[in-house]
C-alpha cells in the first residue's frame, strides 16, 4: 500500500498549537487525505470511507476484490479514530454481501397473505395507487413518512422534501426522535444552535471531564481514546450513571444516582458552587441571561435534599461541585442516559447551567458536548426530516424560513404543509386512523419504539405500509411492500458526526442486481406521483448541491462544504459559509451564541419524578441501553456471526441483594407486560435498579416493557426509567431468528449462539469460546 502522490507535503506536526489556521486542535492533520491511497497487489482496492454505525464515525478502508466485491476491512489513520475500530466496525463490511440481503421488492395486498417477490414496477405502482387512494379519501395528512438518522444527509434532505412536496403531508419524522432531540432542544434554548460546542480533541486538553448518562466504553468505544488521553494528562474523570459501566469503573468519582433524578443532582451541584462562591460572575454578567432566576431555583436544592431524591451521599454532591468548579478547564459530555426521560430537555439544561456558571464554554479543553448515538444522528436532524424543521435547521412555522425554502423548491408557500407530530405520536395517530398509510425508511420501530403492544397495534391499523431496507427487519416483515435498498457501502454521501464534523462516505461496490439506492426509489415515487420535476437527482452529488444551497445563510450552513474539500481534509465542521472558510470546530470562542442578542439563555429547571409511578407492586427502576456488540434495533448486527457469538441474547442485570444467581430465569414485570431473561448478578448496579439491553425483538424485547411517556418539549420517550418488579421464573424466553425473505432462512453460521440461555460473563459480553 503506497501513497500515489509522493510530491504531496508531509503531514503537519501533531502539536495542536500549530494546526492549520481556523481548525486549531479540531484535527491534528496527521492523516493523509482519503483519496490518496490505494492497494496495488493481487487486484485488491482499498476504498476510504467511514463506519456506518455510531456518531464517532471512525475512518476505515473497505477491501474490494478484483470482481468489485467488498470482502474485508482495514483500519484507517483518520484523525477521528487513529487506526482504532470497535467490534461493530470491524464486522460491518459483512452486511454488504450477506446472504440475508433483500434483492427484489416484496409485496402483498393484505397482511393475511405471504410476501411474494415482484418487479419494481409492480411494487412502485401499488405503492403509488395506495398513496393516492388514501389521500383522495382521507386527505393528504392521512399519509405519513418516517425517516432515519443512519441515512446520509442527502437522503434525509430528500425524505423531508418528498414528504412536503410529493406527498404534500405534514406527517414526517425520523428515528432520531428516539435519540438526540432532548439535547437538541436544550442546545437551541440555551445557545440558539443545535450541536456540540467542542471537538473531541478538546477532551485531551481538559482538567476535569464529566460524562453523564453515557456508557462510552460500549456505545462509543473508540471515543474512549480521548478519555484515556485526558486521564494520561492528569484530568479528573467524573461519571454519572446508575450502573458501574466500563468507564465508570475507571472514574475518580462515580455518581450512581437513582434513574430519573439527574436534574435534581445537577441543580444541587450548582447549589454548592453558588454557595461556595465558585461561579464565574464576570462571565455570567457578560454573556448570559436568566442567571438570577437559575440561582434562586438551585438554592432550593441543597445536597441533603437532592441526596435523598437521588439515593446518593450528600458528600458526593459537594465533592463533584468542588472538583468541577475548581478545575482549570472542565468539560461535560452527555448522551441518552440523561436524555431518554420525560424531563430530558431539562436534564440537559442543568448540565449546560453547570458549564456556563463556571465559565467553561468555548475554550480549548473547556466546554459542552452531546454524543450522538446514530452515525448521522447530528446530520440527520439538520435538513428537514424532523417534523418541525426545514433544511438548514429552519423552523417550519417561521414565515421567512418557509418562504426561503419554497423559493428553492419552486413551490408556493401555500403548498408547504405545517408542522407535523413526533414518531411516537404518529403511531398513536395510526391507532386512531388519523394516519392511514405510512412509508418507513431506515428504521425498525417494532424493536426501537417503547410499549411494543401499542406500536404493533398502530401499524396493524394502518391500511398501507411500505418499508425501505436491505435486510427484512421486524417492522418490514409487517409491511405490505418492502423495497430492497443499498447499504452504506453501495452509495456515496455525507454524515455529520457527534462533533458536527461532516465526513464523506465513498461507494465501494455496485449494489446486487435488483437493489436500488434510497435516492432512486424516492425520486421514482415522486415521478409517479407527478412531482418528478422537483426530484431530478441522478445521485447523491446532485442532492448535496441543492442541500448546500438550501442551507446557505442558516445556522446549519453547509454551503462551503464540498465533496472535494471533504476528501482533501477528512472532514469539515459546520457552520461553513464559504469554500474558503475552514469550518467551525469550536463554538462560542468569541463569547457569542446564535441567539440574536448573542447571549446564553440560561433556563430554570425544577425536578419532577418519572412518569411511571413507583408502588409496592412496582418498586424498582427498569433502565435500558446498548451493549458493545450490537447497534440499536439489531437488524444489522444480529446477523453478523462474531457479534452474535459475543452477545447472543439479552439479559437482566440485578443486584446480589435480590437473591438470584447468574443464569437464573428472572421475570421482569412492568405495567406493559412481562418477559423472562437470564440473570447477570452484579454489584455494578443499584439494588433498586435493573438493566436490560434493547437490541432484540419480542419476546425478548426490552421495549415491550418500557413506557411510551414523552418529554413534553422534545417528544422523546422515557426509555431510561419505568417502574418494575422482578420474580423467579422457570425458563428464559427464547430469542427469535431475524426475519428473512420468502424462501430464505436465517444464515445459520450467524445464529449458532442465539439460543444460548445464559447471560454474558460481564456487561461487555463474551465469545462462546469463553464459556466454561
From TrEMBL:
PROSITE patterns: 4FE4S_MOW_BIS_MGD. CDD domains: MopB_CT_Fdh-Nap-like (cd00508). The keyword Iron-sulfur applies. Keywords: 4Fe-4S, Iron, Iron-sulfur, Metal-binding. SMART domains: Molybdop_Fe4S4. Residues 1-31, 374-394, 729-772 are annotated as: Disordered. Residues 44-100 form the 4Fe-4S Mo/W bis-MGD-type domain. InterPro entries: Asp_de-COase-like_dom_sf, MoPterin_dinucl-bd_dom, Mopterin_OxRdtase, Mopterin_OxRdtase_4Fe-4S_dom, Prok_molybdopt-oxidoreductase. Pfam families: Molybdop_Fe4S4 (PF04879), Molybdopterin (PF00384), Molydop_binding (PF01568). PANTHER family: NADH-QUINONE OXIDOREDUCTASE SUBUNIT G, RESPIRATORY NITRATE REDUCTASE. This is Assimilatory nitrate reductase catalytic subunit. It comes from Streptomyces polychromogenes. The gene is nasC.
Amino acid at each position: 500500500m503506497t501513497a500515489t502522490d509522493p510530491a504531496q507535503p508531509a503531514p503537519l506536526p501533531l502539536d495542536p498549537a500549530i494546526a492549520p489556521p481556523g481548525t486549531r486542535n479540531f484535527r491534528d492533520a496527521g492523516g493523509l487525505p482519503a483519496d490518496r491511497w490505494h492497494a496495488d497487489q493481487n487486484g485488491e482496492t482499498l476504498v476510504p470511507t467511514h463506519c456506518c454505525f455510531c456518531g464517532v464515525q471512525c475512518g476505515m478502508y473497505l477491501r474490494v476484490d478484483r470482481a468489485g466485491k467488498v470482502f474485508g476491512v482495514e483500519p484507517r489513520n483518520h484523525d477521528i479514530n487513529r487506526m482504532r475500530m470497535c467490534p461493530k466496525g470491524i464486522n460491518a463490511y459483512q452486511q454488504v454481501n450477506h446472504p440475508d440481503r433483500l434483492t427484489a421488492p416484496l409485496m402483498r395486498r393484505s397482511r393475511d397473505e405471504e410476501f411474494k417477490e415482484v418487479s419494481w414496477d409492480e411494487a412502485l405502482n401499488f405503492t403509488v395507487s395506495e398513496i393516492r387512494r388514501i389521500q383522495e379519501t382521507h386527505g393528504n395528512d392521512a399519509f405519513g413518512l418516517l425517516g432515519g438518522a443512519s441515512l446520509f444527509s442527502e437522503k434525509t434532505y430528500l425524505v423531508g422534501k418528498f414528504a412536503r412536496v410529493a406527498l404534500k403531508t405534514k406527517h414526517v419524522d425520523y428515528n432520531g426522535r428516539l435519540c438526540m432531540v432532548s439535547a437538541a432542544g436544550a442546545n437551541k434554548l440555551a445557545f440558539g444552535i443545535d450541536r456540540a460546542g467542542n471537538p473531541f480533541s478538546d477532551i485531551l486538553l481538559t482538567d476535569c471531564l464529566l460524562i453523564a448518562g453515557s456508557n462510552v466504553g460500549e456505545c462509543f468505544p473508540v471515543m474512549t481514546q480521548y478519555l484515556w488521553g485526558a486521564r494520561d494528562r492528569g484530568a479528573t474523570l467524573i461519571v454519572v450513571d446508575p450502573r458501574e459501566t466500563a468507564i465508570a469503573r475507571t472514574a475518580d468519582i462515580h455518581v450512581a444516582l437513582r434513574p430519573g433524578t439527574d436534574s435534581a443532582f445537577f441543580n444541587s451541584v450548582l447549589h454548592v458552587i453558588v454557595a461556595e462562591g465558585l461561579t464565574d460572575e464576570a462571565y455570567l454578567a457578560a454573556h448570559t441571561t436568566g442567571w438570577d432566576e437559575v440561582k434562586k431555583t438551585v438554592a432550593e436544592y441543597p445536597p441533603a435534599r437532592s441526596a435523598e431524591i437521588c439515593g446518593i451521599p450528600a458528600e458526593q454532591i459537594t465533592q463533584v461541585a468542588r472538583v468541577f468548579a475548581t478545575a482549570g478547564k472542565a468539560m461535560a459530555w452527555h448522551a441518552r442516559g440523561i436524555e431518554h426521560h420525560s424531563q430530558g430537555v431539562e436534564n440537559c439544561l442543568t448540565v449546560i447551567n453547570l458549564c456556563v456558571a463556571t465559565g467553561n464554554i468555548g475554550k480549548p479543553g473547556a466546554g459542552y458536548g452531546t454524543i450522538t448515538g446514530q452515525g448521522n444522528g447530528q446530520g440527520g436532524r439538520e435538513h428537514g426530516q424532523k417534523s418541525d424543521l426545514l433544511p438548514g435547521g429552519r423552523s417550519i412555522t417561521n414565515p421567512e424560513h418557509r418562504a426561503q425554502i419554497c423559493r428553492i423548491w419552486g413551490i408556493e408557500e401555500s403548498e408547504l404543509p405545517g408542522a407535523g407530530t413526533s414518531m411516537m405520536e404518529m403511531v398513536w395517530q395510526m391507532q386512531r386512523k388519523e394516519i392511514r398509510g405510512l412509508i418507513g425508511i431506515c428504521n425498525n420501530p417494532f424493536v426501537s419504539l417503547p410499549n411494543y403492544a401499542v406500536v404493533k397495534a398502530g401499524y396493524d391499523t394502518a391500511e398501507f405500509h411500505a418499508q425501505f431496507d436491505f435486510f427484512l427487519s421486524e417492522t418490514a416483515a409487517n409491511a405490505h411492500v418492502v423495497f430492497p435498498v443499498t447499504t452504506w457501502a453501495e452509495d456515496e454521501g455525507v454524515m455529520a458526526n457527534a462533533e458536527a464534523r461532516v465526513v464523506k462516505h465513498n461507494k465501494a461496490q455496485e449494489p446486487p442486481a435488483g437493489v436500488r439506492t434510497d435516492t432512486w426509489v424516492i425520486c421514482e415515487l415522486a415521478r409517479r406521483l407527478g412531482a418528478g420535476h422537483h426530484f431530478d437527482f441522478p445521485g447523491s452529488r446532485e442532492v448535496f448541491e441543492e442541500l448546500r444551497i438550501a442551507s446557505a445563510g442558516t445556522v446549519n450552513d453547509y454551503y462551503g462544504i464540498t465533496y472535494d474539500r471533504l476528501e482533501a481534509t477528512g472532514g469539515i465542521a459546520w457552520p461553513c459559509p464559504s469554500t474558503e472558510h475552514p469550518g467551525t470546530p469550536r463554538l462560542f470562542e468569541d463569547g457569542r451564541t446564535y441567539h440574536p442578542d448573542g447571549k446564553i439563555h440560561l433556563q430554570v429547571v425544577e425536578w419532577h419524578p418519572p412518569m411511571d409511578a413507583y408502588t409496592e407492586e412496582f418498586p424498582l427502576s427498569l433502565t435500558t441501553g446498548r451493549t458493545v456488540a450490537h447497534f440499536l434495533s439489531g437488524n444489522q448486527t444480529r446477523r453478523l456471526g462474531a457479534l452474535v457469538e459475543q452477545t447472543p441474547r439479552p439479559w437482566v442485570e440485578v443486584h446480589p441483594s435480590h437473591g438470584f444467581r447468574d443464569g437464573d430465569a428472572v421475570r421482569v414485570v412492568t405495567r406493559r407486560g412481562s418477559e423472562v431473561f437470564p440473570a447477570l448478578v452484579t454489584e455494578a448496579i443499584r439494588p433498586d435498579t435493573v438493566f436490560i439491553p434493547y437490541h432484540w425483538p419480542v419476546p425478548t424485547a426490552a421495549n415491550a416493557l418500557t413506557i411510551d411517556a414523552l418529554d413534553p418539549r422534545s417528544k422523546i420517550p422515557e426509555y431510561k426509567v419505568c417502574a418494575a418488579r422482578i420474580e423467579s421464573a422457570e425458563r428464559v424466553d427464547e430469542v427469535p431468528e431475524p426475519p428473512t425473505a420468502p424462501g430464505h432462512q436465517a444464515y445459520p453460521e450467524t445464529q449458532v449462539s442465539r439460543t444460548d440461555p445464559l447471560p454474558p460473563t460481564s456487561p461487555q459480553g463474551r465469545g462462546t469460546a469463553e464459556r466454561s
